[in-house]
Amino acid sequence: MPSTDFAVDTLILPGLYGSPAAHWQRHWARDNPDSRVLEQSDWQCPDRQSWLTRLEQEIDTIGNDVWLVGHSLGCILAANLAESRLASRIRGALLVAPCDLDATETLHPSIIKFGAMPTARLPFLSLIIGSLNDPYMPVDRLRRTARNWGGHLLDIGNAGHINIASGFGRWTDGYDFLDRLKSSAGREAFSTGNGTRFFSAAVANTCLTI
Questions:
Q1: Residues whose CB is less than 8 angstroms from the CB of residue 94 and which lie 6 or more positions away in sequence, other chains included
Q2: What mean pLDDT is reported for the chain?
Q3: Quick check: helix, strand or coil at residue 134?
Q4: 25 occurs within a structural domain
Q5: What Gene3D superfamilies does the database record attribute to this sequence (predicted)?
Q6: Mean pLDDT, to the nearest integer, of 176-184?
Q7: 67 neighbors 92 (Cβ within 8 angstroms)
Q8: Confidence of residue 190 (pLDDT cuts 50, 70, 90)
């Protein structure tokens, strides 16, 4: 049973160091009572197995199928559910600014224990929001990651890491992206079964309102 007064519909997955109060993920949780931030015991030195176990426990506790909203390393955590027993409980995932583990290791050496970059195709619908100048994810690797995961990729231009430092506080466009992902679930034109589609910011409104 859920541990809040509201049924949890969406799990929010922060990345390294968690998301501070001004981050769009925390705004999202405050603005949407059916959302919950997945808290980890150690935000400073992420460990893949520890974080994944915590996520699986939370999904078990909630009891119903959920949507995921990941940022940075939280996206990598979501991708690690591909081969989990709970993959079928994920209705879809909005994956914002996924980080490349090699690039992240260069920027934060010896603190992230996440192993290799997940490459398995995700068995659930996913929309990947990326940036053209993200220091944590070169564009070529972003495209390769989206192809591997079988997700739909939307770049929003030069947006850095889509975090507070790059000007994303209460990012209401993010809410809209999830709403559009939810409304597209199950439609043939927006399904993981048809392979990866690549959208640019210039045509996002057209492509995501199928």
A1: 67, 68, 69, 70, 126, 127, 129, 174, 177, 178, 181
A2: 86
A3: coil
A4: yes
A5: alpha/beta hydrolase
A6: 87
A7: yes
A8: very low
CATH of the domain at 22: 3.40.50.1820
Number of domains present in the structure of the chain? 1
How far is it, in rounded angstroms, from Cα 62 to Cα 155?
Answer: 32
Dihedral of the alpha carbons of 144, 150, 154, 160, in degrees to the nearest 10: -50
Of 86-95, 123-132, 180-189, which gets the smallest average pLDDT? 180-189
> What is the rounded CA–CA span in Å between residue 8 and residue 164?
26
Query: pLDDT band at residue 184, thresholds of 50, 70 and 90?
Result: confident
36 falls within a domain: yes
Range of the domain at 125: 10-207
Q: Residue 35: which of 26, 43, 22, 44 has the closest Cα?
A: 26
The one-character DSSP state at 90 is E
**Token reading at 24:** 């769009």
pLDDT at residue 165 greater than cutoff 70: yes
Angle between helices 24-31 and 172-184 (to 10 degrees): 70
For 20-45, write each residue's pLDDT tens digit.
999 999 999 999 899 999 999 999 99
